[in-house]
Design goal:
Elements (H helix, E strand, L loop, with lengths): L11 E6 L3 H12 L4 E6 L7 H5 L11 H9 L4 E4 L10 H7 L2 E4 L5 E2 L12 E3 H8 L16 E5 L3 H11 L2 H4 L6 H8 L5 E5 L11 H6 L6 E5 L8 H8 L4 H16 L6 E6 L2 E7 L6 E10 L6 E12 L2 E4 L3 E2 L17 E2 L2 E3 L5 E7 L2 H4 L7 H15 L29 H15 L12 H7 L5
Parallel strand pairs: 1-2, 1-4, 2-3, 4-18, 6-14, 7-8, 7-14, 8-10, 9-10
Antiparallel strand pairs: 5-15, 11-12, 12-13, 16-17, 17-18
Helix pairs in contact: 1-3, 1-13
This protein binds flavin-adenine dinucleotide (FAD) and NADP nicotinamide-adenine-dinucleotide phosphate.
Flavin-adenine dinucleotide binds next to helix 1, helix 2, helix 6 and helix 13.
Length: 462
């Protein structure tokens, strides 16, 4: 008989798929438990940290400090990093399940929602996902080209990602050059001719999803100023009621910021951000390139905090040369894992992945954006990771108690010099090299943006 599962003689072996916040917080929760546990974290890129590295805006360095916590977790005895390995593509999920007592999928939401309108894919129309990945040096987006030669940009969506995209387009090179923005992006942005940015929401200013700190920043830019139609300050009674509700406190602060934008008038900046409300895109027009977006004017319908946008049948056109769709991310499937194609998540209950009949799949768990959908800040994933690990540990008695070999049995994390999978020491070599490359430019780091470069640095085949 095997020694009891979760004891030093038979530690619980867990594979975590994905090295973003939810993966690291799940690992932390496992290590903090009373159970003897070994954690192997699989990451498809050579570099860890998910959207903290490839999503958080380069000019928000403070928000990347979560990485220090993750580095501490990675130093915990019993933690192993297996980078540059795409689970489901390079390694079948069944092989992973056989080598571990449990697998926790923390693979985020790597695609985006679609508007589903004509012209959406015209040249010059991009997703926020690809633009964000590009300026943050994500290898998948390294070779994207963004035509920044036109003067008018439209951004659809009023969440924090839309505001990040807006700020990066609005800032001067001097405001960005000492951040960790990818060099290729800084070079392209230096040539940008964008002068007008329209940040368009389908609902009103009280419903925008911006957090106030981020919204206020739009008024603190060197060469760009926000422009607001004073008529947009007049809210319907339901929106006014929202501002009085505790749940509407961010909206209330955002409205104060908006009033401040109106009150201070124009400084005559060369770039301007037009805050536009109650407009839904219905078509993107242009012959061979985006030329204008047709919007339907909306009114709000519904009770306070549940108001939705309803078309009025009145249309307006906004000329534009570049369009960004920032209406939310979306999870993608992994072969061998149940997927809810409607929601773009792995179906789950209390962190247990469910099969088509709604029953838990033994030993399969989920946390983070691929569990909840693409909302929430870095810290939100901590409670989520903790909750999933609580469920996993509650299931301990139901897991196969036979000792499991972990990554060793997969022939991946060996010390052989020609292996392609990376370990944490490999990442630290890349990390140091990036920091050194950044120093002469006064940047915190200059990221490697191609997998080949990173593997080459380690003398590995690509
Ligand atoms: C543009 C943007 C900016 C943001 N800025 C902020 C901010 O400033 N502050 C803040 O608090 N929050 C911010 N957020 C939110 C925050 O980034 C998310 O809440 C958080 O990253 C979600 O964590 P996650 O672990 O679920 O997913 P992710 O961070 O996406 O991590 C998932 C990881 O899984 C890996 N992976 C995917 N598939 C596989 C596979 N098959 N095999 C192996 N590995 C795989 C991915 O490469 C990735 O590293 C931002 C989000 C976005 C999109
Ligand atoms: N600095 C930070 O802390 C930071 C930075 C970036 C991201 N994040 C977090 O990451 C998460 C994701 O951010 P996000 O901006 O991608 O998502 P989000 O906050 O959900 O915002 C999505 C925006 O798209 C709009 N939208 C959705 N479908 C639409 C459609 N069909 N037509 C027009 N508009 C549509 C939404 O409008 P409705 O409201 O009407 O649905 C909303 O304005 C959020 O929790 C965010 O706070 C945080």
């Amino acid at each position: 008989m095997s020694p009891a599962l979760g004891t030093t003689d038979n530690p619980l072996r867990v594979a975590i798929v994905g090295s973003g916040p939810s993966g690291f917080y799940a690992a932390e929760a496992l290590f903090r438990s009373e159970t003897a546990v070994l954690v192997d974290m699989f990451e498809r890129l050579p570099a860890p940290f998910g959207l903290v590295r490839h999503g958080v805006a380069p000019d928000h360095a403070k928000l990347k400090e979560a990485i220090r916590v993750y580095e501490g977790i990675a130093r915990t005895p019993g933690f192993r990093f297996v980078g540059n390995l795409n689970v489901g593509r390079d390694l079948p999920v069944d092989a992973l399940r056989a080598a571990y007592h449990a697998v926790v999928f923390c693979c985020g939401a790597e695609s985006d929602r679609r508007l589903g309108i004509p012209g959406e894919d015209l040249p010059g129309s991009y997703t926020a996902t690809e633009f964000v990945g590009w300026y943050n040096g994500h290898p998948d987006y390294r070779d994207r080209r963004f035509d920044l030669s036109r003067e008018v940009a439209v951004i659809i969506g009023q969440g924090n990602v839309a505001i990040d995209v807006c700020r990066i387009l609005a800032k001067t090179v001097d405001e960005l050059k000492h951040t960790d923005i990818a060099e290729h992006a800084l070079d392209a942005l230096a040539e940008s001719r964008i002068r007008e940015i329209h940040l368009v929401g389908r609902r009103g200013p009280a419903q925008a999803k911006f957090t106030t700190k981020e919204f206020r920043e739009l008024g603190e830019l060197t060469a760009c100023e926000p422009v607001v139609d004073p008529a947009d300050l007049a809210l319907n009674p339901e929106s006014l009621a929202e501002l009085e509700d505790r749940a509407g406190s961010t909206a209330k602060k955002n409205m104060e910021v908006l009033q401040g934008f109106v009150a201070r008038g124009s400084k005559g900046c060369p770039r301007r951000i037009f805050l536009r409300y109650l407009l839904s895109p219905v078509e993107v027009k242009g012959d061979a390139h985006v030329e204008r977006v047709v919007f339907e004017r909306n009114r709000l319908e519904g009770a306070p905090l549940h108001q939705s946008a309803r078309g009025t049948g009145e249309y307006v056109e906004q000329p534009c040369g570049i369009l960004f769709r920032s209406i939310g991310y979306r999870g993608i499937p992994i072969a061998g894992v149940p997927f809810d194609a409607r929601q773009g998540v792995f179906p789950s209950q209390e962190g247990r992945i469910l099969d088509e009949s709604g029953s838990p799949v033994p030993g399969m768990y989920v946390a983070g954006w691929i569990k909840r959908g693409p909302t929430g800040i870095i810290g939100t994933n901590r409670a989520d990771g903790v909750a999933t690990v609580k469920t996993l540990l509650a299931d301990l008695a139901t897991l196969d108690p036979a000792p499991k070999p972990g990554a060793d049995a997969l022939g991946l994390a060996t010390e052989s010099p020609d292996r392609r999978a990376l370990n944490w020491s490999d990442w630290l070599v890349i990390d140091r090299a990036e920091i050194e490359r950044g120093e002469p430019k006064g940047k915190p780091r200059e990221k490697f943006t191609r997998v080949k470069e990173m593997l080459g640095l380690l003398g590995r085949p690509s």
